[in-house]
Amino acid sequence: MANKKQLDLLRQNVEGWNKLKKENPLINFDLSGTDLSGVDLSGANLRGVDLLGVNLNGAVLLGANLRGANLREADLREADLFGANLREASIYRADLSDADLNEANLTKGSIGGTIFGNNNLRNTTGLETIEHFDSSTIGTDTLQKSQGKIPLEFLRGCGLSDWEIASTKLYTPNLSNEEINMILYEIHDLRITRPIQISPLFISYSHADTSFVDALEKKLIEYGIRFWRDIHDAKAGRLETQVGRAIRHNPTVLLILSENSTKSDWVEHEVRLSRKLEKEIERDVLCPIALDESWKTCKWPERVMEQVTDYNILDFSKWEGDDEFDKAFDKLIQGLDLFYRK
């Protein structure tokens, strides 16, 4: 719950706020759900502050420090974020339409369901390092203003297909006829050779298995397959609701079974959600793969285990060997609920 004294101080005296913040590094500063629309917060130290659902419409955050801040579901429309530090900030389901992100630093921030409308991202730093927990919306006006200068990794993470990403190059100014034709040929080739996915993948895993998921991620990117990793390490918010929404938006759940994941309450929860969704949409949602055999003796409820073992569980136990990994991955591709051509 927002602290009224903190809120009043920030509105009236940014320097006084910054002094309070510096002198009390262990205090949790909570401004969630407050209205700061149009307020000049230039240079404000908002590092790590809870700004969940805050109204910052038209606020001036010139050079503000928002590192690690929780900006989930925040209204940042028309906000001036020129030179703002948004490193490691959570911007999940925030609206950044018409915001000035020139020279803003989004390194290792997290997004999903985030709206980028009418933004110039040419000089926004750290976009290629952002963590994506769901698809995001990028307006054609943003693509046009950015003039083809948006990192590939960012566009992929937002959910654009490879041919759509290639088409953004057409916004580059002063292209020659030859360059335009080359881009059009690239778009054509990608459109007919890349997979057409019925839905992106949602990867359910224990963070103790991050090394495997990192290797899997590289392979999925190589094959042009869109995916989102889970959001258990999110900084704040209603995780159960967010995970449920993510699975519904991406109803093909790649379940990583391991000694680590079978001890995870979250992974078990995702299995239950997936099975429930299968009944609703009347198609398979879960696609389990195993890094070891611990799932056979895990302590998940018997009912849940019976549901998991209904599937053909692919063996990735030898994933650290390149050849074995490739063989298992090929089988995975064949079994996924997507059309694939290479």
Give a quick precis of the structure.
The chain is of the alpha/beta class. It has helices at 4-12, 14-23, 140-146, 152-158, 162-167, 177-193, 210-222, 239-249, 265-281, 302-308, 322-335; strands at 110-111, 115-116, 131-132, 137-138, 196-197, 201-204, 227-229, 253-257, 286-290, 314-315, 338-339. Helix 9 links the parallel strand 8 and strand 9 (286-290).
Describe this structure in words.
The chain has 342 residues and is an alpha/beta fold. The chain has two domains: 4-160, E3 ubiquitin-protein ligase SopA (Pectate Lyase C-like, 3 Solenoid); 196-339, Rossmann fold (3-Layer(aba) Sandwich). The chain is 35% helix and 9% strand. The protein is built from eleven helices and eleven strands. The chain has helices at residues 4-12, 14-23, 140-146, 152-158, 162-167, 177-193, 210-222, 239-249, 265-281, 302-308, 322-335; strands spanning 110-111, 115-116, 131-132, 137-138, 196-197, 201-204, 227-229, 253-257, 286-290, 314-315, 338-339. Strands 7-6-8-9-10 form a five-stranded parallel β-sheet. Strands 1-3 form a two-stranded parallel sheet. Strands 2-4 form a two-stranded parallel sheet. Helix 9 (265-281) links the parallel strand 8 and strand 9 (286-290). Helix 1 crosses helix 2 and helix 8 (239-249) packs across helix 9. The longest helix has 17 residues, at 177-193.
